[in-house]
């Protein structure tokens, strides 16, 4: 189980996270422009997030924080 | 008499071309004209704008700080330039792209859903020219036929269809 | 739930000026992760010459120097000779490192200068608006190769890792990519190795990162990664071109 | 299409005019705000029988120019401020080799990396010492897109005539702006260059292009011969434009971008009853001393306006023999003054005169 | 051994003094006539805890200096004329970074490769524009081996004090000749450099050395702040030596090597009844305008002597506000004038005065 | 009896300024012999940058250009692009070509510039009085390595043929010596091959000639040849590092 | 059978010819300095010269001309 | 009073050292002195020479064109400099190396077989110092003990033997 948090004003809507997510649960929303004029990435299905951080690893803006249920 | 115009928006919306078109039209009328883009890395942020002057006298600085007219096609540019327009000036806003409404009372603002209009009329991507049409209509800064002549000069004959659609876009703007 | 991924501390909490999807940002983060992991932010001096990353002095929290175009290895040499116990890295583009800075690069390597170079190969001059770089691929259209790079006139791309593998002072020359999470992790490993080599005073280390420039390639960020994989990697094969620690580390 | 007015960027107009002037080789290295020159050359040179080559550095570019000029062809390079600094050794060598060539500096803000907006802070570098040793280069200062084109043609011609490097000292504004331009008719007759190292074909003694003279007397003779040439140039090539200076109390003097703004300011000042005029040097070396001498009898004050902290001002003072007070107004960093700023300064000076 | 006179070459005395002044890093590239500096450093730096490094080029050397200066240590490079041209971009960057450092130019004949004998044809390059953009560097002009040593010490101190590059503008004669020199006592207390990029050790915010300001207003602010600093330097650092000028009809003015010959000429001329004196600038930037102003009331003529075709002469004219006629005598190519040549010129001027 | 050896015609009949026994003179002659044999004196432009051979413009009878230090390949490029049908060669020292001129060398090669470089490696800066060159051997005493070249501080020698073999535009990179009549003849063959490659428009050719500097080595000319054999050749092995014509010529 | 001719004023007495000659018939004479101040090479035994030109090949000054009886 | 001296010969004959020695001696006497070598590529031709001035006043140019005294150790240098000596000047010629005889009558020439003398007296290679000894004797440009002091300063104590042989060479020159 994981969870991502996209920092709204850092995201530039480039879509690299969307492209990287193995669960295909990230999308660039077309509703709201941030203060720099970009549509931003959102997680469209929190439940399916496995916390693998592939999205964050590919994010050039360091706009994604990832949390995960850490076993042990 | 000098008219100064700023064209502002995102890169890709054709604002540099629109500015060039108007300047070219002015030149065809025998006027002194200048055009200058903002240049350099800030372009990369995605905004693109240019200044145009059309005058009876030699143009001093081509850089426009307080335009008589403003054509604006995105929200950041709107915010950046709206207050620089001279009192009595006119602003042409692509309301398909910009939600804001201007509260200044000393200028005339025209809200034109240019992007939508262009799309609906089969001249997709020519919102810039639609706005130019409106500019011509409201300001008479140059004559419509000058713009037509300019189009014939700028666009190679081989791309005649493009000239046609530009003319159409102008007409749309004129007709609003 | 615990945070498993967040901005490294040595990375400044500011918005960058990079175009959307530009992989410069990924590489910045990797460097910062290594700096954090090695705990050396206070002992590191970074040097960014002219190029899209010239303003990286605002993005790294360690001390930073802006160098003239192509001269970062010389500036780094000046710093390192003054402060041999500090970590010194440069962050250079392909125009910077492999064109105007060719001599500085090769001679820093020949001196076995104990510095680390992160070399961003995006096959173009990003900052100046997309001219041909020394690494521009044959046939690639740029502002100064409007008909595609014609190797007969404009010459062949320069392969820096291959060249530097022939230079005696080079301790590490490795080419990596950032086109996928896996490659990003490989890139990070290479950067860590480079910093470790510097820590161990083993000499000159360079990590060449195949990178994208969506703006000047005229592609979306995702398409750009695809081009990187399809066109750049085949021309610039990934791998270790020289690693004097390879033997010792072979049971890593 | 020769007589037609076309709308073009200064950088592009310059590049087009250079090709028309018979420039056969262009060598450059990317730098803002002059990239359009290289882009234009890259597009057009191959189609028109010329060479475009992106060099690995500014230093390589200027030395490629040295090579092409030695071979007897018209050659050009362009750059902007930091890039010109890098060319300075090469410029000194080209001058010392008595080779003709054209160098474009589309100035930006400095020092160091500075910025990319217009500036005029490389005046000294252009007219005093674009390198070591006693030498000069011709320096043209356009103030319109039309002059970007016209002056590059003249630069090639004069460079060949005198066997001297010629520079167009432009700036980001002139390079980036579009204005109408009419390309002049250009004779395609190129001058003979019997000194060129283009292969003697067993028909003449070998030619040598060199700058080394280990014997002081030989080097001094070479420097003196060049000085003689410079005297001829100083005599013949000064050039400036006068605007309303005849009765002017205050003569504004400015070149390039800022001269346009000054002209507007002069017009406005006249409306306010200030007797202002404009003296615009079109050639910076040789500095148009004779033209400045003409205003000495009438001008009560001179206002020198530059996009710098004050560089040309020294030459202005010397040109009027310090006999007219010279005031200064400068902006830096890429900022252009507005006409109002100049007018204000004019009003201040005018007040102090009475 | 501090108070002892030793016989040393100018280049070596300078190098020794630099080490004593706390120079910790020397970066250079071979070029005649300054090779002894590098040779001395190569021999002595390793023994005395400093770094000697032969760079791959002059450009690399000046950028290594930029790095070492950023790290907060006293750093120096040396070269001769063509090599200084190559450093001009770097010098502009160092100035724009407000970094202290010392640059030695042991001038030789130019332009181009020229020759290797003494010259003073890089005056403009040193005082006007060793690179693009609005900036200045301190320029010291020694005229003896003793001053080669003294001034390099001062150069390091003033460079640190003002955070500015300082140049010793020497020449082949001063570099190559031996004379007695006494090394001064030097305090080994180095100034604090809280701005240095030497690793923040988690104790302060990160330091940044940069020259880029994309916003014109920011760049203008930076240029203006530096101009303010220059004003302070102009106020405080002018320096010149007067010799028999009080009652002199003709004031010879010259710096460096040629000033020695002029001094002899002045003595001889006095014997012949010519009231001559010598004003020798010891600092070329800031130019000692205040000192020149002092001779304006009495001097009837000024003779400017240089190993060039005439570069400092403009500054001399401006310094006296063109109110005293300035004559010129120059030799080039590595030739030094004899005292007799100067005396002859003095006699001519003297005749014309009466 | 007939004359079997005499000064080639393209060599000027003047006394050189070289020190006694300096092998610069041998290499000059070899180039002139090739020019004579190919009959191209009238079609050749030679370029000598700063170094002991700077005054070679007086020794070759073809048209000659003096280039700034390190920049001969750029000057040659300017000439060749203007006159593609002429032969263009440069004659450069190791300080010139492998230090200050590194970028110009590598990029002329990368462009496959159709010029020929004769590269005199004498492990020192001859003209300026014997400082360390990029090719100075480890331990070698020079004016700027008074305690012998310490590779830890002063770096490793640069091996240009090895480096250039990694550059795509290089057609020929060969290292020869002139320490004996046999090697001189080999050197001549290499120079001929280089000029032929240029004639056939095959790209960039470089012949590195291991050479002596008796004056700055502090040895007699004969001892210098001995050192060349004993010390230089082992460090800089002779041979063909790249030759794109090798296959076609393999039955030579 | 061969014969060499050393151009007196071109020779710098470097000894490379002496060193190269397989017949060991070249010596640097110590009697007469040429106009440039050098003692010069001479062939001390013309009869033994085989005209192999090894001396000339090694001469940096191009100071040696070699003649030989050419068979055929 | 200024004395100017040129030392000229082949590289390796120690003329630069000889000049330095005399200049050092002058300095020890509290005089103003200068020494300058000819420098640059011409050195490589094999000749080496230097100029020395010893004076009561500050030395203007260290470069000597017309020496009062000339020490010369090879034939090319003899040819080059013999006519530059001032009338009344003195020339010290190593006659082991130079066959020429001077025809000028306005100068004094001393022919000393210095190289042979040095060899015969077991101070091989010190012909330069032998000539200095003669110079001291004939001109008194500086005192002999000043040269002795100079030797002690210039040569490190560790090489005392060298000082001894230099002193011996001077004596040889003095004694001729
Ligand atoms: C001396 C000099 N020449 C040219 C420039 C202009 N310039 C700025 S960045 C750059 C190259 C950028 O390309 P690269 O190094 O590949 O970095 P990227 O922008 O692609 O990351 C150039 C040529 C400069 N600033 N200084
Ligand atoms: C820009 C510049 N830097 C330095 C010099 C001084 N210089 C002259 S020749 C030379 C190098 C000579 O060495 P090399 O190229 O190896 O040739 P060699 O004399 O050994 O044949 C140098 C550094 C110069 N003339 N120009
Ligand atoms: S952490 Fe993994 S699964 Fe979750 S959004 Fe990111 S990439 Fe998708
Ligand atoms: S990768 Fe980062 S910047 Fe790009 S869309 Fe995703 S969150 Fe936004
Ligand atoms: S121009 Fe290219 S390299 Fe530069 S920030 Fe944009 S995408 Fe990145
Ligand atoms: S210094 Fe060396 S390379 Fe130069 S001519 Fe003399 S021996 Fe030859
Ligand atoms: S090789 Fe030539 S220069 Fe040397 S000694 Fe023999 S003939 Fe004379
Ligand atoms: S030709 Fe042969 S045998 Fe005759 S002298 Fe020369 S090397 Fe000796
Ligand atoms: Mg790049
Ligand atoms: Mg060499």
Can you describe this structure?
The complex is a heterooctamer, with two copies of chain A (72 residues), two copies of chain B (176 residues), two copies of chain C (252 residues) and two copies of chain D (354 residues). With 176 residues, chain B is an alpha/beta fold. Chain B has six helices and six strands. Chain B is 39% helix and 22% strand. The radius of gyration of chain B is 15 Å and the shape is globular. A seven-stranded mixed beta sheet of chain C has the order 3-2-4-5-7-6-8, sandwiched between helices. Chain D has 13 helices and 15 strands. In chain D, the strands form three sheets. A seven-stranded mixed beta sheet of chain D has the order 3-2-4-5-7-6-13, sandwiched between helices. Chain D folds into two domains: 6-236, Thiamin diphosphate (ThDP)-binding fold, Pyr/PP domains (Rossmann fold), CATH 3.40.50.970; 241-353, Rossmann fold, CATH 3.40.50. Chain D has helices at 10-20, 35-44, 58-70, 81-86, 88-96, 123-127, 145-162, 172-176, 216-236, 256-271, 289-295, 312-319, 339-353, and strands at 5-9, 23-28, 51-54, 74-79, 101-107, 138-140, 165-171, 178-182, 208-209, 240-243, 250-253, 276-281, 283-285, 301-306, 326-330. In chain D, helix 1 packs parallel to helix 7. Chains in contact: A-B, A-C, B-C, B-D, C-D, C-E, C-F, D-E, D-F, E-F, E-H, F-G, F-H, G-H. Strand 9 of chain D pairs parallel with strand 3 of chain F. Residues 6, 11-17, 40-41, 58-59, 61, 63-64 of chain A line the site of one iron/sulfur cluster (SF4).
What is this structure's SSE topology?
The complex is a heterooctamer, with two copies of chain A (72 residues), two copies of chain B (176 residues), two copies of chain C (252 residues) and two copies of chain D (354 residues).
Chain B (H helix, E strand, L loop, with lengths): L1 E9 L4 H14 L3 E6 L9 E9 L13 E4 L2 H7 L8 E5 L13 E5 L1 H7 L6 H13 L4 H11 L5 H16 L1
Parallel strand pairs in B: 1-4, 4-5, 5-6
Antiparallel strand pairs in B: 1-3, 2-3
Chain C lengths: L1 E4 L18 H15 L5 E6 L13 E5 L4 H11 L4 E7 H7 L1 H9 L5 E6 L29 H4 L5 H5 L5 E8 L3 H19 L4 E7 L3 H4 L3 H15 L3 E5 L9
Parallel strand pairs in C: 2-3, 2-4, 4-5, 5-7, 6-7
Antiparallel strand pairs in C: 6-8
Helix pairs in contact in C: 1-7, 3-4
Chain D lengths: L4 E5 H11 L2 E6 L6 H10 L6 E4 L3 H13 L3 E6 L1 H6 L1 H9 L4 E7 L15 H5 L10 E3 L4 H18 L2 E7 H5 L1 E5 L25 E2 L6 H21 L3 E4 L6 E4 L2 H16 L4 E6 L1 E3 L3 H7 L5 E6 L5 H8 L6 E5 L8 H15 L1
Parallel strand pairs in D: 2-3, 2-4, 4-5, 5-7, 6-7, 11-12, 11-14, 14-15
Antiparallel strand pairs in D: 1-8, 6-13, 10-12
Helix pairs in contact in D: 1-2, 1-7, 3-5, 10-13
The site of one iron/sulfur cluster has 15 residues of chain A, from helix 1 and strand 3.
């Amino acid at each position: 189980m994981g969870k991502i948090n996209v920092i709204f004003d850092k995201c530039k809507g480039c879509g690299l996270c969307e492209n990287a997510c193995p669960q295909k649960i990230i999308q660039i929303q077309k509703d709201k422009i941030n203060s720099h004029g970009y549509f931003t990435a959102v997680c469209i299905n929190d439940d399916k997030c496995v916390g693998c951080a592939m999205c964050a690893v590919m994010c050039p803006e360091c706009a994604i924080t990832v949390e995960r249920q850490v076993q042990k | 008499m000098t008219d100064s115009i700023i064209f502002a928006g995102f890169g890709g919306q054709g604002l540099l071309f629109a500015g060039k078109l108007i300047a070219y039209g002015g030149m065809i009328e025998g006027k002194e004209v200048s055009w200058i883009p903002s240049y350099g890395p800030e372009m990369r942020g995605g905004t693109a704008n240019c200044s145009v002057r059309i005058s009876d006298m030699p143009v001093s600085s081509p850089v426009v700080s307080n335009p008589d007219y403003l054509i604006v096609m995105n929200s950041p540019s709107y915010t950046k330039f709206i207050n620089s327009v001279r009192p009595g000036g006119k602003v042409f806003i692509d309301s398909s792209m910009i939600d804001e409404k201007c509260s200044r009372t000393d200028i005339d603002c025209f809200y034109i859903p240019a992007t939508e209009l262009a799309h609906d009329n089969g001249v997709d991507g020519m919102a810039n020219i639609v706005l130019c049409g409106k500019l011509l209509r409201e300001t008479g800064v140059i004559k419509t036929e000058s713009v037509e002549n300019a189009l014939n000069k700028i666009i190679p004959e081989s791309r005649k269809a493009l000239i046609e659609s530009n003319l159409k876009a102008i007409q749309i703007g004129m007709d609003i | 739930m615990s945070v498993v991924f967040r901005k490294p501390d040595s990375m400044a909490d500011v918005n960058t000026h990079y175009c959307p999807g530009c992989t410069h940002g990924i590489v910045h983060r990797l460097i910062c992760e290594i700096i954090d992991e090695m705990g050396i932010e206070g002992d590191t001096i970074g040097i960014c010459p002219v190029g899209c990353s010239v303003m990286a002095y605002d993005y790294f929290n360690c001390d930073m120097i802006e160098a003239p175009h192509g001269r970062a290895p010389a500036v780094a040499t000046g710093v390192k000779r003054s402060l041999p116990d500090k970590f010194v890295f440069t962050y250079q583009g392909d125009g910077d490192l492999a064109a105007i800075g060719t001599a500085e690069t090769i001679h820093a390597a020949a001196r076995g200068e104990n510095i680390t170079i992160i070399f961003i190969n995006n096959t173009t001059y990003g900052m100046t608006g997309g001219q041909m770089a020394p690494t521009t691929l044959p046939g690639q259209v740029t502002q100064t190769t409007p008909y595609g790079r014609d190797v007969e006139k404009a010459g062949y791309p320069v392969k820096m890792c291959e060249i530097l593998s022939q230079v005696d002072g080079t301790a590490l020359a490795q080419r990596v990519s950032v086109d996928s999470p896996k490659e990003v992790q490989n890139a990070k490993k290479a950067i860590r190795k480079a910093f470790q080599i510097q820590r161990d005073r083993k000499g000159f280390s360079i990590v060449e990162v195949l990178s994208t420039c969506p703006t000047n390639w005229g592609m979306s960020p995702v398409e750009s990664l695809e081009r990187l994989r399809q066109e750049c990697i085949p021309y610039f094969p990934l791998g270790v071109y020289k690693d004097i620690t390879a033997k010792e580390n072979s049971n890593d | 299409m020769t007589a037609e007015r076309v709308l073009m960027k200064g950088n592009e107009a310059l590049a087009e005019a250079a090709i028309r002037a018979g420039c056969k080789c262009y060598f450059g290295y990317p730098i803002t705000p002059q990239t359009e020159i290289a882009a234009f050359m890259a597009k057009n040179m191959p189609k028109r029988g010329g060479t475009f080559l992106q060099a690995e550095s500014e230093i390589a570019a200027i030395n490629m120019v040295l090579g092409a000029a030695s071979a007897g062809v018209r050659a050009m390079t362009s750059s902007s401020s930091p890039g010109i600094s890098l060319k300075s050794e090469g410029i000194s060598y080209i001058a010392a080799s008595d080779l003709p060539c054209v160098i474009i500096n589309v100035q930006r803000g400095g020092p160091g990396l500075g910025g990319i907006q217009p500036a005029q802070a490389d005046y000294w570098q252009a007219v005093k010492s674009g390198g070591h040793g006693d030498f000069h280069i011709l320096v043209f200062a356009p103030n319109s897109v039309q002059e970007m084109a016209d002056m590059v043609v003249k630069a090639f011609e004069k460079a060949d005539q005198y066997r001297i490097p010629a520079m167009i000292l432009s700036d980001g504004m002139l390079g980036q702006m579009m204005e109408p331009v009419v390309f002049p008719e250009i004779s395609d007759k190129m001058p003979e260059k019997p000194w060129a190292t283009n292969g003697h074909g067993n028909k003449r003694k070998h030619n040598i292009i060199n700058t080394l003279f280990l014997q002081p007397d030989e080097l001094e003779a070479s420097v003196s011969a060049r000085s003689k040439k410079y005297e001829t140039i100083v005599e013949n090539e000064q050039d400036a434009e006068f605007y309303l200076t005849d009765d002017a109390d205050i003569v504004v003097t400015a070149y390039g971008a800022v001269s346009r703004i000054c002209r507007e300011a002069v017009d406005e000042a006249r409306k306010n009853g200030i007797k202002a005029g404009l003296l615009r040097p079109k050639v910076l070396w040789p500095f148009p001393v004779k033209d400045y001498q003409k205003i000495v009898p009438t001008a009560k004050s001179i206002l020198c306006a530059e996009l710098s902290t004050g560089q040309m001002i020294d030459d202005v003072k010397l040109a009027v023999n310090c006999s007219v007070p010279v005031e200064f107004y400068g902006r830096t960093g890429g900022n252009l003054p507005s006409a109002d700023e100049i007018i204000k300064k004019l009003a201040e000076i005018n007040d102090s005169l009475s």
